[in-house]
Amino acid sequence: MRTQVAIIGAGPAGLLLGQLLHQAGIDNVIVERQTAEHVLGRIRAGVLEQVTMDLLARAGVDARARAEGLPHEGIELLFQGGRHRIDLHGLTGGKQVTVYGQTEVTRDLMQARAAAGLRTVYLASEVSLHEFDGTQPRVRFRAEDGRTQEIACDFIAGCDGFHGVSRASVPTAAMQLHEKVYPFGWLGVLADVRPVSDELIYANTERGFALCSMRSATRSRYYLQVPSDEKVANWSEAAFWDELRTRLDPEARERLETGPALEMSIAPLRSFVAEPMRFGRLLLAGDAAHIVPPTGAKGLNLAAADVGYLARAMQAFYGERSEAALDRYSDLCLRRVWKAERFSWWFTSLMHRFPDTGSFGQKIQEAELDYLVHSQAASTALAENYVGLPLEDF
Ligand code: RFL
Ligand code: PHB
Questions:
Q1: Domain count, the chain
Q2: What average pLDDT does the segment 328-335 reach?
Q3: Is residue 116 part of a domain?
Q4: Domain range spanning residue 220?
Q5: In testing the pocket of ligand 1, which one of 300, 307, 341, 387 has its CB within 8 Å of the most ligand atoms?
Q6: Which CATH number belongs to the domain containing residue 214 in this structure?
Q7: Ligand 2 atom at minimal distance to the Cα of residue 215
Q8: Considering the domain boundaries, does residue 205 fall inside one?
Q9: By CB count within 10 A, which of 69, 204, 288, 326 is most buried?
Q10: pTM above 0.70, yes or no
Q11: Does residue 318 have an active-site annotation?
């Protein structure tokens, strides 16, 4: 098999890149380890920045996100038992975010890819990357029928997430890794109940963090901070709802609707960056290159921004025969990535209870939150990061 760009991974990064390249007339093949159903079954992100919506539009796959996504102009911070609104729209000169599930983004991208007749190999095992330090890289894998296949290409895009093979194929001496693992995770529940509030609630409590999010007017997504060694099996659904209630304010507690969990899982929290993001003809994008804790809702949005830059760089390569944009790819991404890393780390540190938080740490968090919601300068800094920093040079 031959293509211009072999994309490893059919998550949002790989699928969006495939669509953006297709729009630019660049042929691509996606190689994915799982089935499409498995990829669609992962319940993850829910908040899209305008930058991400714009890239979906550029890829021609924004119709349903625009029609069914929920525009959110504010978020609520809950601390010391009271809720305070951050007016994202007012503080950023009219920007907003769109609440639309990663599952739906992925479904829309998969449908567009199928409609365009683009090649995707699912259930590819033993994927390996070869000769990306030259000009004719190759991707080898075992297909569903057990046969070994090879793709000859000009570029390999490593969009295979944190545990993928792409970053692991780079010699360790060629890469610098920066990592912070948090001593807690998020226990998430998805349920067909009406959201407790019109806007997302981020809660700081002495019992730990909680988040009230949603997927639609009738489907809610809730999270609780739990210790990192916690197991889902230790939680009954009733225990989840009871604990969530204790972390809410009296009005939200009263309004909270409960129902059977459609999904319940624990996600670990981690900050991670691999530098650089380019190794010859191998380019990393999304979670393959960097991870943020979900508190700032940045992971999927960073993945989208990376592939926006990458598609543009490849367009310049094929259109103008210029490698300049590919040469700048890593630096351009990482400048914005590190700002999102900082924001996500800061917001996580402010909202969660750490083993050494104690009464002093709790008081300091509450003082900072009090300052944050009453200072226009501090609220503006939160708002402009939450809605997403602009793409430089785009
Ligand atoms: P993905 O989604 O992990 O996709 C990678 C794909 O690569 C495949 N793969 C391989 N394929 C072939 N060969 C191999 N050897 C392979 N190894 C892996 C995998 O099967 C998979 O299909 O990475 P991508 O595309 O970079 O997308 C990143 C996002 O998924 C991630 O950043 C977000 O989900 C993070 N995130 C959030 N981001 C936001 O922007 N806003 C949010 O509100 C938000 N909330 C969240 C989140 C992540 C969460 N979890 C579970 C980690 C909430 C949670 C709870
Ligand atoms: C979600 O709806 O899954 C979600 C929303 C906001 C976050 C993280 C996750 O910060």
A1: 2
A2: 97
A3: yes
A4: 182-269+354-385
A5: 300
A6: 3.30.9.10
A7: 2
A8: yes
A9: 288
A10: yes
A11: no
